[in-house]
């Protein structure tokens, strides 16, 4: 059986986890779930890095021992991973005995191979990074570039690892394995650092007692970064050369933020070379999650309100936004307004409405899932697209392009929406055409089953909900077309992405009038004459182009064909509809409205829509000739 081993960094438990930790862990979870879906035996490792100076300091501030403090904070990571639906196989703590013994064994191997020696060390050090800075990395003000805190000058006798000895082998590995580090920008940064020369690194601390003692010198503890990196093998049972270690090492993917790739792509491989162990296959350093352009940081108090957004939109919407909104190698600025837009446009409108529409038609016209007996136009096209989508998805996952992978899936989602529209399935309920109606609905439901499998690694709870609503008692995430069982009942449930209303209700204004007076006045105000209504010229039109308007996040510029002419209309629907999903959609247009200029764009009419907490365009139930008057 094929195996797949993916890891996150082990996180400092100096405080509770933040959204940056969640971003990395969700990304690793997608890889783990995707490879399980493909039949791999998977091991997914995450955990906490407890022997850190900042953990020691946090414990002192609370009057606890370091171990007591870690025992208090570590469960907050476990709880968050459970809430985010993280499917890790191992949650590893570096205070465990298996890690202590394994780390000491690893260090002994390096020592016995002659790659560890003792010398005096002095240099500038960041307590939050737990890292020394070389002279060429220092700024004039000696400030940590990541944590924006002053660096400390340290001098002490340390043990060193002969990193410089492995510079040529590392350079050869980079050149022979161009996909060793992702993305390419990160690889180029590390290559530049490597080509400028490597110095031996300090790997012990004599001034701290919180840590794992050197096996051959208990006066020194193992430097946190050296100890932490070894967790990727100690968690598998390196100490005893266990079956799990033999099965899963080397790691397929070490997933992390870009700030710690140097440790993982240079220091860690060099130590593995010294220990005569295979190197990990891929080091992936994603961009930072930022808020207002600044990296999330426990030290600097820069946070995203995960709890609030998850409570509002749900875990899957939060996962989807992180993975879809940002190109994985680049920094991404977290904006709740964009989460709201993604929720409405992609999840509620594209996917949620498709499921509701298909299930509604099936429940209205059939008792169970019908047999697809009557093939017709567009059927083969969507089956081919399902296969092509799967192939494209695999290609994008190999390069960690989560945003493109999700866009590829959503192209298929939108195509099924068009399939339902093009076939006008709702018109086929007559006895002579009902077999064709059944075939179209079968294909649409099978497409939804297939989509549920495609999205399972990304938004697993949604995938499960789709499976339950289409009647699968045993979820079938097999990525083969045609596995939906004929004859099973579907379970029309609640919308999988219910509308979210962010508008705050304003308290009623006191007017001094009685309730009956207010209602009477309101009634008179709301009534218009039939003659006034007749003055409105409503026509059926078809949207032939849609584009965003610069500087106006809510507005789209539409070109609508109303049969006798084409009109330019500005519509406030950008939060709810993607531009490509609007093309070909029939709408109702008010054509005798006085033109208005909105954001320097002339609007020559208005499209009708239902509007509350969301916006849904008003469309004819069946396709009708353009220009038809609506009465």
Textual characterization of the structure:
- By secondary structure, the protein is an alpha+beta fold.
- 41% of the residues lie in helices and 20% in strands.
- The chain starts with a strand and ends with a strand.
Give me some keywords for this one.
6-stranded antiparallel beta sheet; 631 residues; 6-stranded parallel beta sheet; 26 strands
Biggest sheet details = 6 strands, parallel
Strand content: 15-25%
Q: What's the count of strands?
A: 26
Show unreliable segments.
504-525
Radius of gyration: 30 Å
Number of helices: 20
Walk across the major sheet and give the strand order: 3-2-1-12-13-7
Helix content: 40-55%
Morphology:
elongated
Structural class: alpha+beta
Arithmetic mean of pLDDT: 88
Topology, element by element:
Layout: E1 3-11, H1 19-37, E2 41-48, H2 53-61, H3 66-83, E3 90-93, H4 97-112, E4 116-126, E5 131-133, E6 152-161, H5 167-176, E7 181-182, H6 184-195, E8 201-202, E9 204-205, E10 213-214, E11 217-222, H7 224-229, H8 231-234, H9 243-248, E12 253-257, H10 261-274, E13 282-286, E14 289-291, E15 294-295, H11 306-313, H12 315-325, E16 332-333, H13 336-365, H14 379-398, H15 402-423, H16 434-455, H17 460-469, H18 515-526, H19 530-534, E17 538-549, E18 552-561, E19 566-571, H20 579-582, E20 586-590, E21 596-598, E22 601-603, E23 606-607, E24 609-611, E25 615-617, E26 629-630
Parallel strand pairs: 1-2, 1-12, 2-3, 7-13, 12-13, 14-16
Antiparallel strand pairs: 4-5, 4-6, 6-8, 9-11, 10-11, 14-15, 17-18, 17-20, 17-26, 18-19, 20-23, 21-22, 24-25
């Amino acid at each position: 059986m094929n195996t797949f081993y993916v890891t996150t960094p082990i996180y400092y438990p100096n405080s509770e986890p933040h959204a940056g930790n969640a971003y990395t862990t969700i990304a690793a979870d997608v890889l783990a779930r995707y490879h399980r879906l493909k039949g791999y035996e998977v091991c997914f490792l995450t955990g906490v890095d407890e022997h850190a100076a900042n953990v020691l300091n946090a414990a002192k501030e609370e009057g606890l021992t370091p171990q007591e403090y870690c025992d208090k904070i570590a469960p907050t990571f476990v709880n968050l991973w459970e809430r985010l639906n993280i499917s890790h196989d191992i949650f590893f703590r570096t205070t465990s005995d298996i890690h202590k013994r394994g780390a000491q064994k690893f260090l002994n191997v390096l020592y016995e191979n002659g790659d560890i020696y003792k010398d005096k060390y002095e240099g500038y050090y960041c307590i939050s990074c737990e890292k020394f800075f070389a002279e060429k990395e220092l700024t004039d003000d000696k400030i940590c570039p990541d944590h924006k805190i002053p660096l400390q000058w340290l001098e002490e006798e340390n043990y060193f690892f002969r990193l410089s000895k492995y510079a040529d082998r590392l350079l050869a590995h980079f050149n022979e394995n161009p996909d060793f580090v992702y993305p390419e920008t990160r690889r180029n940064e590390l290559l530049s650092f490597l080509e400028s020369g490597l110095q031996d690194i300090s790997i012990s601390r004599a001034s701290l007692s919180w840590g794992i003692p050197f096996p051959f010198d208990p006066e020194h503890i193992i430097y946190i970064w050296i100890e932490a990196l070894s967790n990727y093998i100690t968690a598998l049972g390196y100490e005893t050369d266990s079956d799990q270690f033999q099965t899963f090492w080397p790691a397929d993917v070490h997933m992390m933020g870009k700030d710690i790739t140097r440790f993982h792509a240079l220091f860690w491989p060099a130590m593995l070379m010294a220990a005569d162990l295979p190197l990990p296959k891929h080091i992936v350093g994603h961009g930072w999650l930022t808020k207002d352009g600044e990296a999330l940081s426990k030290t600097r108090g820069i946070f995203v309100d995960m709890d609030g957004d998850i409570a509002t939109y749900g875990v899957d919407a939060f996962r989807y936004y992180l993975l879809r909104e940002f190109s994985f190698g680049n920094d991404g600025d977290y904006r709740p307004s964009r989460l709201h837009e993604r929720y409405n446009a992609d999840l509620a409108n594209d996917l949620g409405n498709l499921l509701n529409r298909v299930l509604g038609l099936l429940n209205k016209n059939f008792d169970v899932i019908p047999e697809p007996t009557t093939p017709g136009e567009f059927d083969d096209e969507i089956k081919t697209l399902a296969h092509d989508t799967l192939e494209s998805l695999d290609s994008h996952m190999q390069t960690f392009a989560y945003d493109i992978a999700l866009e590829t899936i959503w192209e298929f989602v939108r195509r099924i929406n068009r399939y339902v529209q093009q076939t006008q399935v709702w018109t086929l309920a007559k006895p002579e055409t009902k077999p064709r109606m059944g075939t179209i609905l079968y294909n649409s439901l099978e497409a939804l089953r297939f989509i549920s499998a495609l999205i399972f690694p990304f938004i697993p709870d949604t995938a499960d909900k789709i499976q339950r609503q289409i009647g699968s008692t045993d979820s079938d995430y097999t990525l083969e077309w045609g596995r939906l069982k004929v004859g099973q009942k579907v379970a029309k449930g609640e919308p999988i992405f219910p509308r979210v209303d962010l508008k705050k209700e304003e308290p009623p204004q006191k007017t001094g009038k009685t309730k009956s007076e207010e209602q009477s006045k309101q009634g008179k105000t709301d009534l218009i004459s039939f003659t006034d209504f007749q003055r409105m010229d409503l026509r059926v039109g078809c949207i032939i182009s849609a584009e965003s308007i610069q500087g106006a996040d809510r507005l789209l510029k539409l070109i609508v064909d109303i049969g006798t002419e084409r009109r330019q209309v500005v519509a406030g629907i950008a939060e709810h509809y993607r531009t490509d999903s609007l093309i070909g959609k029939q709408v109702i247009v008010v054509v005798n409205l006085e033109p208005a200029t909105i954001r320097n764009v002339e609007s020559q009419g208005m499209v009708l829509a239902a509007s509350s907490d969301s916006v849904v365009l008003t469309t004819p139930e069946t396709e009708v000739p353009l220009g038809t008057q609506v009465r």
